[in-house]
Every structure is written in structure tokens, then in C-alpha cells.
Amino acid sequence: MDNLSFSIRNLTVSARSKILLRVEALDIPYGCHTAVIGPNGVGKSTLLKALIGQAGQGEITLFGQAVAPQLKQSKVAWVGQHGSYRMPLSVHEYITLGQKSSGKLFQTAAPLPPAAQELLEVFDLAGLPHKRVHDLSGGEQQRANIVRALLQNAPVLLLDEPCNHLDIRHQHSLMRYLNRQTQRFSVLMVLHDLNLAAQYAQHIVLLNQGRVIAAGAPKAVMRLELLAEVH
Ligand SMILES: Nc1ncnc2c1ncn2[C@@H]1O[C@H](COP(=O)(O)OP(=O)(O)OP(=O)(O)O)[C@@H](O)[C@H]1O
């Protein structure tokens, strides 16, 4: 149990009497970068939603405890597939949104904490702290989402297609950064790019038609016959 983040047993996610996802047993290791792969519409995002308690029924534990709203809030940071930027926030305000240490919803006037400044530099946003988030490009917005999630300092980071909108340099830079941080937190991400998954993930979950086809080390899962069957 110590080396697991999520443990899933008998999970079923249904919508309009159709089963979208059925997982009998799946363990996600801790201290590791896990990629969930598979074609469109096979249940990858649904799996992530189930892990944060937004969908499905079954037994899901995180660090050995049933996933409850409080546990989720303190242990999991999340970047979904579709960002929402209706509020006119600056990058500075957005990435520090809801930070508990400030005691305020936004940290408008306060200088950015060093950790935030460092992440803005790592993710190439250092020149834009006062720009409105809704004026950023798609890739800049995605990087701001990732910085915001990293600043939650959660032990588990869930990312749904984090490479969406990122150019190739930023894709590799993100993956390298995350792999350097596996002592601090575990990453579970949905990825479409099989090359990125093979190059950077230490654990891979392959889904097809709402089922786990294989899970384990990249060499065991990224086999041509398995991928050809699914794709
Ligand atoms: N609320 C819902 N009601 C009905 N069907 C849904 C609902 N949510 C998801 N689905 C369906 O469940 C299936 C899995 O969706 P999901 O978003 O998990 O796929 P995915 O593997 O993440 O796909 P993609 O790679 O295209 O993002 C899809 O066929 C989708 O249309």
C-alpha cells in the first residue's frame, strides 16, 4: 500500500444506462510518472474523473484512504482538458488563485512567492505575470494551468492531455520537468502521443473500449501487437 497512490477495485462508470468504463483492479504507483493511453473515446478522461470522485461507483483509495472531498482537495491537483477563463484575471492572480497560505482568494498586490516565480520561469511565462489569462495563447494558457496546479503542492498531480496546445519544445520541457519531480509528487496523465509516453512515463495504462487492456512498465505495455490491436 505504501508505494501506491490510487488503488481501484470494481469501478463502473455509466451514463444513460451505457457502461463507459469498467475497471476490476488497477493500482497506480506512487513516486512515478504514469501515462494513460488509448484511442479517442475509450474512457481515459472518465478514469481521471472517477479518481477525483466526479464519476462512477466502486472502491477507490488514495494512499490507503477512501477518496472523499477533503482528501481529494488536500492530496490531488488537477488540470482538466478544457480550461475556463471567464474571470478577467492576470497570470499572477490566476496561478495563485485559492492559495491557502495567502488567506485571500487572489494575491493581487503581494509579490509572487519565490516558488511561483521559479515555475513561471521554468514554464516560460515569466514575462507575462500581469497579462490577462484570457489574452494568452492556447499554449500559454495551458502552461499557466500547469503552474497553478503545481503550486497546490499536492502529492498527486492529475493532468488530462497536458500537452494539448504545447509546441514540441514545451512538451518535452514539461515532461522532463515532471520526471525530475517524482520524489515530490506522482503524476498521472492522459496522453495521446505514444512517443512521449514511451519516452517519459515509468508506468503505462492502456485503455480500450472502457477496459484496461494492459498496465505496467512501458516495455510490457508498449508492444506493437497490443498497440495495433487497440489503435
Ligand atoms: N456524461 C456523459 N454522458 C454520456 N456519454 C459520455 C459522458 N461522458 C463521457 N461519455 C462518453 O464516454 C466515452 C469515453 O469518454 P472519455 O472522455 O473518457 O474518452 P477519452 O478516452 O478521454 O477520449 P479522448 O481521447 O477523445 O479525449 C465517450 O464515448 C464519451 O462520448
What does this structure look like?
This protein is α/β, with parallel strands linked by helices and 231 residues long. The protein is 32% helix and 27% strand. The protein has helices at 44-51, 69-75, 91-95, 114-122, 138-150, 168-180, 194-200, 218-221, 224-230; strands at residues 4-15, 18-29, 33-37, 57-62, 65-66, 76-79, 156-160, 186-190, 203-208, 211-216. It has one domain: P-loop containing nucleotide triphosphate hydrolases (Rossmann fold), CATH 3.40.50.300. The chain binds adenosine-5'-triphosphate. Adenosine-5'-triphosphate (ATP) binds next to α1. Residues 15-16, 20, 38, 40-46 line the site of adenosine-5'-triphosphate. Part of the ABC transporter complex HmuTUV involved in hemin import. Responsible for energy coupling to the transport system. Residues 6-230 form the ABC transporter domain. InterPro entries: AAA+_ATPase, ABC_transporter-like_ATP-bd, ABC_transporter-like_CS, P-loop_NTPase.
